[in-house]
Specification:
Layout lengths: L8 H7 L1 H20 L16 H19 L8 H4 L3 H24 L1 H15 L7 H19 L13
Helix pairs in contact: 2-3, 5-6, 6-7
């Protein structure tokens, strides 16, 4: 880990392990608070475990890891990979999150296979796979494999296979 000398103030702090840890802990805490307010989070299942137990457990683990990152002995260091991160990278990350939200919203009207195939094809292409026709050629079987695994596990996913037919 090294530090970049050109960074000052808040911009530099956000790139340090401490800054990343605090920002992640804040986002995770807000997400946990949001989920805690949802009715489904407290719904008890047949086995006596609440539906939100495992998501809550995952969020608790992420909170502990991010807080550990914020207080460890390298908390003031800037990782080489983070030294060059800028606003453009943040915009790309937010676009990926927006694409995931669009996929989630399209699952009900289009069904999981079609919505996830569109999402995966777009993400595969944006991540650099060329030529373009390989992205949908890979996304369709991946979506069908995901559907098959969840069907074999007995988990019902949002939307039917092809709900608009």
């Amino acid at each position: 880990m090294s530090t970049k000398t050109g960074l000052r103030g808040l911009g530099r702090w956000c790139r340090t392990n401490q800054g990343i840890g605090i920002l992640l802990a804040t986002v995770v805490a807000l997400l946990f608070f949001y989920l805690w307010q949802q009715d489904w989070f407290h719904r008890e299942q047949r086995d006596g475990i609440t539906l939100g137990f495992f998501p809550g457990l995952g969020l608790a683990a992420m909170l502990m890891a991010s807080l550990a990152l914020a207080v460890d002995k390298w908390r003031h260091a800037v990782a080489e990979e983070m030294a060059d991160v800028g606003w453009r990278d943040l915009v790309w990350a937010l676009l990926f999150c927006l694409a995931a939200l669009v996929m989630y919203r399209l699952m009900e009207p289009l069904g999981l296979p079609l919505a996830s195939a569109l999402f995966l094809a777009g993400m595969i292409y944006l991540l650099g796979l060329r030529p373009w026709y390989l992205a949908p050629a890979l996304a369709i079987p991946i979506s069908l494999i995901i559907l098959a695994v969840f069907t074999l596990l007995g988990i019902r996913l949002p939307g039917d296979i092809v709900p608009f037919l």
